[in-house]
Amino acid sequence: MVSPHLPSRFSVVTIGRRLIGVGRAFSVAEHLPIASHGDASQSTEMPKPSRRLSRAVIVRALSRLGELCTEKNSRVEIAIYGGRVMMLAYDCRETTKDIDAIFHPPEVVEPLIRQVAREQKLPEDWMSSGVGSFVSRREERIQFKQLQIPGLAITRPSAKYLLAMKCRARRLPTPFRAGDMADTKFLLRELSICSMAEVDAIAVEFYGAAALDRGKRWLVEKLLREVRHG
Q1: CA within 13 Å, CB half, 74
Q2: For the segment 107-154, what is each residue's pLDDT rounded down to a tens digit?
Q3: Which of 141, 157, 173 is the endpoint of a domain?
C-alpha cells in the first residue's frame, strides 16, 4: 500500500490520451505509427499538434519524462486517477481524452512537462488540471503495476476508492466525454456490490456522511439495478 497522502505541494495535472491495456507493463519499445508528411510544397502552414493522443504517443511522452527526471536525479511520484485508470488497469476503455494526475515535486516536473511537449510536438495542455475537486483527504492508492516507467513512481486509486470518486462525480455522458456511468457499472461488478447500502458505506469511508446527495443517488441506484439484472 502506498502512503495515503501526497505532499501538499503536489500539482494537479492531466496527462493526454490512450495508454496500454491490462495485463502487461508499459515499455519504451512500443511501436509508434509513422506519420506521412506529404508534399511540403502543397502547404506552408505548420502542422498543429494532434488533439487525439494514442497510447503509443503517451507512453513515449511518459518515457521521455522519466528519462529527464532520471537525468536530474529526481524520483518523481505521479498518482493517476479517473477513466484513465479504467483503461490502464482494467482495460475497459479503448480511448480516453486525458489522464488526471497529481505529481511531485512540481518545481522539477513542470518544466520537464513543457520540454516533452516541445520535443514531441504535443499540445501545450497535454497535461491539465481536472481531478483536484474529487480527491479525498483519505486516499487509498496502490502501485500502478500495469504502468511502470523508469524514473517515475506511479500509483492509482484502489477499486473501492475509485468507485467512491465515480459516484461522487456522477458525470453523465456527452458527445465530448464518456461520463462516469460505464465506469461505475464496471466497478460495481468488479467489487461484487449489489446494494445501495454497500455503496453508501464506501462513499462515507472516503468522503463522509454527505458523500452522496439525492441528486447523485438516483443514478447510482439505476446503475445498481442494471448490474443486478445483468
Answers
A1: 17
A2: 998 899 899 999 999 877 777 656 777 799 999 999 999 889 999 999
A3: 157
